[in-house]
Amino acid sequence: MAFMMALLALGPAQASLSNVVRIVLQKGRHYDPTDLFLRRGDTITLVNGDDSAVHHAFIEADRFAFDAGDQEPGKQATLTLKEPGDFIIQCGIHPKMRLTIHVQ
C-alpha cells in the first residue's frame, strides 16, 4: 500500500515504466527468441552472433518498413517500435528465419 501511495505521489509521468531494450540473437539461421511481446517505444537490438554468416533483417508492413541491411558477424542493428500490431522480422538471406513481434 505504501508503494502505491508513493507512485501516486510521483504523478503519472514519473510513475510510468521506462521503455525496454530487448536483445535478439541471430545465430544458426534462427532468431532467438522467435516471439516477443513488447510495448510501443520499446527497442529491439538484433545481434549477428554467427561466426561467418551474414544476415539481413527486414520488416515489410502496411504502416512502416524496416531494413537493417547486410549485417556482418558481430554487427548489430536497432529498431524502436512506434506502431502497435503484430509484425514479422525476416532475413533476406535466410528466408526461413522469422521473428514475430507483438506490439501493444
TrEMBL record:
Q: Does the keyword Signal apply?
A: yes
What does UniProt give as the signal peptide span? 1-15
Q: Which UniProt keywords apply?
A: Signal
Q: Which Gene3D superfamilies is this protein grouped with?
A: Cupredoxins - blue copper proteins (2.60.40.420)
* Name this polypeptide is given: Plastocyanin
State the organism of origin: Methylobacterium pseudosasicola
Taxonomic lineage of the native organism: Bacteria, Pseudomonadati, Pseudomonadota, Alphaproteobacteria, Hyphomicrobiales
